[in-house]
Amino acid sequence: MSARTRDGKMTVKEVIADLRVAPSTFYRWRQLGKAPRAIKLPNGDVRIRRSEYERWLAEREDAA
């Protein structure tokens, strides 16, 4: 498995679809610093590393 496959970049649209939240919710989380860390490209687009997204989700798992 290549590094690109292992740690591909996700678009905001993909993250929103996976989480099943409204775009406004995701962008509010970003403003509050509660969203997964992202990469802002020179053209203004945002990408999230898949590994960062999975880490962020794991941190939110309910331990109970």
Helix content: 40-55%
Secondary structure: number of strands: 3
The gross shape turns out to be globular
Q: What structural category arises from helix and sheet content?
A: alpha+beta
- Stretches with pLDDT under 50, minimum 5 residues: none
Q: Write down the CATH topology.
A: Multidrug-efflux Transporter Regulator, Chain: A, Domain 2
Largest sheet: 3 strands, antiparallel
Strand order, biggest sheet? 1-3-2
| CATH hierarchy: architecture | Orthogonal Bundle
How far do the termini sit from each other? Answer: 34 Å
On the 0 to 100 scale, the average pLDDT is 90
Structural notes for this entry:
By secondary structure, the chain is of the alpha+beta class. It has one domain (3-59): Multidrug-efflux Transporter Regulator, Chain: A, Domain 2. The protein has four helices and three strands, in the order H-E-H-H-E-E-H. The protein has helices at 3-6, 12-19, 23-32, 50-59; strands spanning 9-11, 39-40, 46-49. A three-stranded antiparallel beta sheet has the order 1-3-2. The chain is globular, with a radius of gyration of 12 Å. The model has no long low-confidence stretch (mean pLDDT 90). Residues 10-60 form the Helix-turn-helix domain. It comes from Streptomyces cupreus. Pfam families: HTH_17. This is Helix-turn-helix domain-containing protein. InterPro entries: DNA-bd_dom_put_sf, HTH_17.
